[in-house]
Amino acid sequence: MLRKRLLAALAALATAFVLAVGAPSVSSAAETPEAAAACTAPNWVAGQWYESGAIVRYTNGLYYRAKHANPGYDPTISTWYWEPYRCDGGGGNTSFVVSQAQFNQMFPSRNAFYTYQGLTAATSAYPGFARTGDDATRKREAAAFLANVNHETGGLVHIVEQNTGNYPHYCDRNQPYGCPAGQAAYYGRGPIQLSWNFNYKAAGDALGIDLLNNPWLVERDAAVSWKTALWYWNTQRGPGRMTPHDAMVNGNGFGETIRSINGALECDGRNPAQVESRVNAYRNFARILGVDPGGNLYC
């Protein structure tokens, strides 16, 4: 009987203490382990099976969470399977080195389709973009990307390729999937003028969007349009020796980004006026961002 009374008294004291100081926050208790797990997540391993919800640390030092179970797909390429993840439990690219005011200064006559919000939303697909290296490296990469975009679109004015006579040429019938949207459906669109059926297929597969059957999304959805440009920038070498992203973060210089985007037509003295146009824009945008453009500007 004495033991029961003692236990009851202790329970009453515990209840009084909780009422006095307040119960622990359920949300805080739930969030803390998840955030800690992200910060101590294992390194991503290609080919290893990951269940939905798994958190990994990629080679760029950033964290990703599996939206869908997958056999070790690359988090920066297979964005349908993976999403960016922060140690504080958030997701996406929370900051961009180019402010909206600077963006507007760079593109004073831009088409209303190319929104700043569309660009910043698209960066979540490639969180290493303009977030790798020191502040100067990040700003140089952003300036380089936007300078090439400026050249490809006439200052973010054109959404689609202007020479309609080229439209039927961008269908490679040798591809097993053909051109289901039509012979003339894969013309240049978006900030880096995505073209050819195989590029729409590859970009769509990487982004988890069916661009092979619906290439018009690139000219109708600003975030999709920006994502296709960032897909090319971060994953494709084109006629160059490296991706434009790697060229900027590894110090190879702006000239290598030109080579990767249109080197077959512009580099090695083929079209110096076009190269000069890109370089001038890059210098101007670097000045707006307050960073030295660095060396190796030409290709």
From TrEMBL:
Domain Glycoside hydrolase family 19 catalytic per the UniProt entry, residue ranges: 98-299
Coiled-coil stretches noted in the UniProt entry, renumbered to this chain: none
Swiss-Prot/TrEMBL keywords: Disulfide bond, Plant defense, Signal
Pfam family, one: Glyco_hydro_19
KW Protease (keyword) present: no
Extent of the signal sequence: 1-29
Protein name: Chitinase
UniProt organism field: Streptoalloteichus tenebrarius (strain ATCC 17920 / DSM 40477 / JCM 4838 / CBS 697.72 / NBRC 16177 / NCIMB 11028 / NRRL B-12390 / A12253. 1 / ISP 5477) (Streptomyces tenebrarius)
